[in-house]
Design a protein that fits this description.
Layout: E1 2-6, E2 12-15, E3 19-23, E4 41-49, E5 54-60, E6 63-71, E7 73-78, E8 83-87, E9 90-95, E10 100-106, E11 113-121, E12 130-135, E13 145-151, E14 161-162, E15 167-173, E16 177-182, E17 188-196, E18 199-201, E19 204-206, E20 211-215, E21 219-224, E22 228-236
Parallel strand pairs: 13-14
Antiparallel strand pairs: 1-20, 2-3, 3-4, 4-11, 5-10, 6-9, 6-11, 7-8, 7-10, 9-12, 13-15, 15-22, 16-21, 17-20, 17-22, 18-19, 18-21
Keywords: Iron, Metal-binding
GO molecular function: metal ion binding
Organism: Patiriisocius marinistellae
Length: about 240
Amino acid sequence: MKTILHPASTRGIANFGWLDARYSFSFANFYDPNRLQFGALRVLNDDIIAPSMGFGEHPHKNMEIITIPQSGILKHKDSMGNEGIVKAGDIQVMSAGSGIEHSEINAKDNEELSLFQLWIFSNEQNVTPRYDQKKIQPLLKTNRLTAIVKPRDKALDGEVWIHQDAYIHLGNFNKKTTTTFSLNSKAHGAYVYIINGNAEINNIKLNKRDAMGIWDVDLIEISVEKDSDLMLIEVPMN
């Protein structure tokens, strides 16, 4: 078993007035040669965006981009013709593929927008760009982890998928819960991120916004405290 700890206090920081961001991996002005990625997971950003502000039109290519708002409303527009809003309780997935441009703006003029954005390397190059959006709150089962993103060949009709052998799980726990998680492949690792509350991963204590990567293991032991939320991202390590 191999592990790496990323306490919340060690994340990169950016504060531009309109954006207050924390970076789990090297991004923008934050560079750490030991934190370039975790397997196929390249980016996990924790952003707070001021009212009516955001990211103007910008390009992406050959990356799976997953956005999960925590509060507020995101206004999205892209070069594929998609335009609309993404709210807390929704998930947005874009396969940038051969190339897209999009903008991301806080739709509210009196409320901050809080979101997580993940970038996962695609396992196919230059695919046709695609967009998907789904309400995930109704899918979540209390006190257990729920897969909200799956690989394309594992997703059932209507499930959110990406061009990578990767899974994203969310868990909302309203009571102390002990469980185990089995990786789908020996070539995979899991990046566990504590959104709120506290948990122990293989007997290692983690607090709010702490993260832990774990690989070369078949089974992960998870003990979650009451009123805690976590995200588990399973990705290929090669």
